[in-house]
């Protein structure tokens, strides 16, 4: 690797690793999904109702490192930096120079990828896995060294343990190889060795899914009924362009060049994979970010092609200007793309047009903040309110007190911020339905969410509202905390019964 390229890479990786720590204003908490993933460290298993087990073991590592916000932010940033490194190596493999590497890295940083890399979710590792699989297949095609196929199996197996989204890549990649001259890969025995490795790595989770009635299918059906039903196919396509703004010209150039640029002919399968997977996502009305794993390889092809275009006569003097143009939209929109401002300032800074683009949530309705940002508000306040309610319970009665929440974000936030002050919170939502403590005697109940429902009130003597979240820019705005007294001795048994019913409902058979 030339010295200039090496120094650029070090500088960009250092920037990428530190950049994300400046993107979240202190007024924001962690995201609701992050609390669920962190809680999984306390309940290690071969599978979960919501995600495969990789994130749980990563959460255990975060817990060993102290569990602080720094480490929660570090790992998605690390996966983002590693993805950028693989893009860099892809450009090098395609014989691109330092300009192509810099262009690909800049577009990657100035894109929706950076927002993904803020959050501790399986998405950052998923994008890295897709990029590595493309890289290893391209390496095999170039070198015809079968060991790359074994490594592809390792990556695919680990990717499956991280997020089932990798199955969509397989659904596009395998037929794409079949319809191109690279179909000869199916005569390579090492391919099947790699697939066997992937299967062996995925097997513990596959067995867990089968033993538990394949809750993954129930989760997907619930997702389709409550969220994907609000996805518009035209909106999905529009968001693909918004992820990269002007940088879309780079990945579009890569996709176009794969279909007609002679040096890319051996790698045409990558273009077909992109089109097949994208068609599948459009048909299924998937969330826009599901497709992000397709783009790093397109950025590599596109940046090398742009470098080729700029090598012609006077056009080489336009290279710097093109870099500036790619960066400029992100610089102009930086304060509204990322949660760098206090929520109220962000709300005031948004024009109606911006709000229409950025603040349409999964329910299909317009709101005051982007959904991810609203999902990062109110959690510390909620933990404080739950702690205050818990402190109203006589000390002797606290071992017989339960905190019951409406959703996993509430339970996870209380357990993260108030773990030393209250008993663990529970909910019938997501994986928490499997984590109920055994309680034969229950004297007090703290309900978090809406006012206690009829199924709770009929087994109690009354309740008092002790507080609520008043932040209108929080998705949890209006969430109340209620201290419930006079619990019937029957209630613990009913609670266990409802838990079993919820668990049974998560089974696909």
Automatic annotation (TrEMBL):
Please provide, in alphabetical order, the Gene Ontology terms of the cellular component aspect for this entry.
plasma membrane
Residue stretches spanning the membrane: 42-62, 74-91, 97-118, 125-142, 148-178, 190-210, 241-262, 269-286, 292-310, 322-341
- Any Gene Ontology biological process: lipopolysaccharide biosynthetic process
GO molecular function per UniProt: pentosyltransferase activity
- Membrane-protein topology: Multi-pass membrane protein
For this protein, the record's PANTHER family field holds:
MANNOSYLTRANSFERASE YKCB-RELATED (PTHR33908), MEMBRANE PROTEIN (PTHR33908:SF11)
Q: Provide the protein name.
A: Glycosyltransferase family 39 protein
């Amino acid at each position: 690797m030339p010295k200039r390229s090496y120094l650029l890479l070090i500088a960009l990786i250092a920037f990428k690793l530190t950049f994300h720590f400046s993107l979240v204003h202190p007024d924001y908490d962690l995201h609701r999904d992050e609390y669920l993933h962190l809680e999984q460290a306390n309940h290690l298993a071969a599978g979960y109702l919501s995600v495969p087990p990789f994130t749980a073991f990563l959460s255990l590592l975060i817990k060993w490192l102290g569990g602080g916000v720094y480490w929660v932010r570090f790992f998605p940033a690390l996966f983002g930096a590693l993805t950028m490194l693989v893009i860099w190596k892809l450009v090098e493999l395609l014989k691109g120079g330092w300009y192509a590497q810099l262009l690909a890295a800049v577009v990657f940083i100035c894109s929706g990828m950076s927002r993904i890399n803020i959050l501790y979710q399986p998405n950052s590792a998923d994008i890295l896995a897709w990029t590595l699989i493309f890289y290893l297949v391209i390496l095999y095609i170039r070198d015809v060294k079968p060991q790359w196929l074994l490594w592809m199996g390792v990556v695919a197996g680990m990717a499956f343990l991280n997020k089932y989204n990798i199955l969509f890549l397989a659904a596009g990649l395998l037929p794409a190889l079949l319809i191109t001259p690279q179909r000869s890969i199916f005569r390579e025995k090492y391919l099947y060795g790699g697939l066997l490795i992937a299967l062996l790595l995925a097997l513990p989770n596959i067995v867990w899914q089968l033993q538990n009635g394949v809750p993954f299918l129930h989760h997907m059906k619930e997702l389709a009924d409550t969220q994907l039903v609000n996805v518009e196919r035209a909106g999905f396509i529009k968001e693909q362009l918004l992820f990269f703004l002007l940088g879309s010209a780079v990945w579009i150039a890569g996709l176009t060049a794969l279909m007609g640029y002679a040096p890319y002919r051996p790698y045409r399968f990558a273009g077909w994979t992109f089109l097949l997977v994208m068609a599948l996502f459009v048909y299924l009305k998937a969330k826009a970010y599901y497709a992000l794993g397709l783009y790093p390889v397109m950025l590599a092809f596109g940046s090398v092609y742009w470098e080729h275009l700029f090598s012609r006569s006077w056009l080489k003097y336009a290279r710097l200007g093109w870099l500036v143009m790619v960066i400029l939209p992100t610089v102009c929109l930086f304060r509204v793309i990322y949660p760098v401002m206090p929520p109220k300032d962000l709300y005031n800074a948004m024009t109606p047009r911006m709000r229409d683009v950025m603040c349409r949530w999964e329910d299909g309705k317009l709101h005051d903040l982007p959904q991810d940002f609203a999902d990062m508000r109110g959690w510390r306040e909620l933990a404080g309110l739950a702690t205050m309610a818990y402190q109203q319970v006589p000390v002797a009665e606290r071992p017989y007190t339960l905190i019951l929440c409406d959703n996993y974000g509430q339970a996870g936030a209380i357990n993260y911020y108030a773990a030393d002050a209250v008993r663990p919170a529970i909910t019938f939502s997501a994986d928490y339905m499997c984590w109920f403590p055994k309680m034969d005697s229950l004297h007090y109940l703290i309900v978090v969410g809406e006012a206690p429902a009829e199924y709770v009130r009929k087994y109690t003597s009354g309740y008092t509202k002790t507080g609520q979240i008043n932040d209108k820019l929080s998705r949890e705005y209006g969430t109340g905390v209620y201290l419930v007294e006079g619990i019937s001795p029957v209630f613990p048994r009913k609670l266990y019964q409802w838990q079993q019913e919820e668990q049974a409902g998560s089974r696909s058979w």
